[in-house]
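Sample entry (119 residues):
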Amino acid sequence: MEHTALTLLILQINKLLDTGKYDDITVDDIYMNIDEGTLLQFLKNECSDDIDLSYHLSTKKNFEKFYLEHLQSLYDAYAGDHKRKWGIKNKGLCLLLAWTNEILQQGSGWKPANNISKR
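Predicted structure, serialized as tokens:
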């Protein structure tokens, strides 16, 4: 899976956090939807026009399956330990952002583009 899908999702989650409109999405909401395998659909339904998951829900890319498998692995290993491990206490979207970042960090083979300007 390309890291682009994860970084695009991080941008979408960050945009939701910035609005403050979804601060009522709890860690338990995120846990429940990871457990049920409905997380992206939950976000799409809850956040409607404020989130664009068209890239992530495309059946061609199979991102949803990949993402849920990795989130479920983190859930199995760390559910309930999010305060100690990531410092997240309150907001479900903050946990989701941290876990999406964790999935990206666990990947391999990422290198910055060579054409980035250097000062």
